[in-house]
Amino acid sequence: MSDFTALPDLALRTLGGAVVAASDESFAERESLIRPGRPGFQHHTFGPKGQLYDGWETRRRREPGHDWAIIRLGLPGLVHGIVIDTAWFTGNYPPHASVEATAVEGHPTVAELQTAPWTQLVPRSALRGDAEHPFPVTDRHRHTHLRLNIFPDGGVARLRAHGEARPDLTLYEGLGLDLAALANGALVTDCSNGFYSAPNNVIAPGLARHQAEGWETARRRDGGNDWLLIRLAGPGVIKLAEIDTTNLLFNAPAEVSLRGTADGTTWTELLPRTRLQPDTPHRFRIHDAPALTHVRVDIYPDGGLARVRLHGTLAGGGEG
């Protein structure tokens, strides 16, 4: 994927992210930084602190220094790019910002994070009002937390940290896990079509609340079929597949099949072409599968899936 914004947002609140501390949040709360979806705004909507903003906004500084917010990534991993969004902040956005990262295992306090070593991902850069600012990141170290610095003060609507999850899979040694879970380090690396919604939704945590929280393709008119390719959390043996069409009443696929590979050339059939029902969780036992690294999910002819789960065991221990 050449566009880093096609990768999951590792900081997203719905993936477990949290804004654990901020220097100030006098006008608008820090938690807004990692909310899902586009920031909203309604003109002339005032509360006791002034105009209501769907973002994080600090007071006007009257002393030297700058404001900051520390974000715990919902999914620790490799950050490929940062988006700083100043949507709706026009006369009160910060003129400059930077982003740093650190890796602190366990459950650190704010004080422990403050004294941790931080690495610069995005240098101090100019911002515009009411605009998205994408910044590619070349650092490929695993990080658990980010620090957004704004100079000197102002409002930021959203901070997005797109990348690849790298959890510590040693926790699952001797246990089963969902080898296709985004939270465990899996990733959809390719798909035929993602017209209506992003393919990585299909391996996101939790249940899809509506159609947009799954993967849905455009209607095919060429006689072919749609598909996606999942890189597993690690080499593993799949024993149970869950194919969920919940919320897809009139646009579920008619059928599905699964194939897996460990080398990209030899493919093993895991599930033959099998009928699906709309708005239904389906569970299929997988027998005698070898250790695999990737699974291809084919749907016939098109449509949507709410979730794909591939439960099994890792072929070897170690970090994802």
UniProtKB/TrEMBL annotation:
GO molecular function: allantoicase activity
Ranges in a coiled coil: none
Annotated keywords: Hydrolase, Purine metabolism
Root EC class: hydrolase
Residue intervals of the Allantoicase domain: 16-165, 185-314
Family matches, as Pfam families: Allantoicase (PF03561)
Enzyme Commission number(s) of this protein: 3.5.3.4
Source domain of life: Bacteria
Record's catalysed reaction(s): allantoate + H2O = (S)-ureidoglycolate + urea
The protein's annotated pathway: Nitrogen metabolism; (S)-allantoin degradation; (S)-ureidoglycolate from allantoate (aminidohydrolase route): step 1/1
InterPro entries from the UniProt entry: Allantoicase (IPR005164), Allantoicase_dom (IPR015908), Galactose-bd-like_sf (IPR008979)
Hydrolase is among the record's keywords: yes
Keyword Hydrolase: yes
Similarity remark: Belongs to the allantoicase family.
NCBIfam families hit by this protein: allantoicase
Full protein name: Probable allantoicase
Lineage: Bacteria, Bacillati, Actinomycetota, Actinomycetes, Streptosporangiales
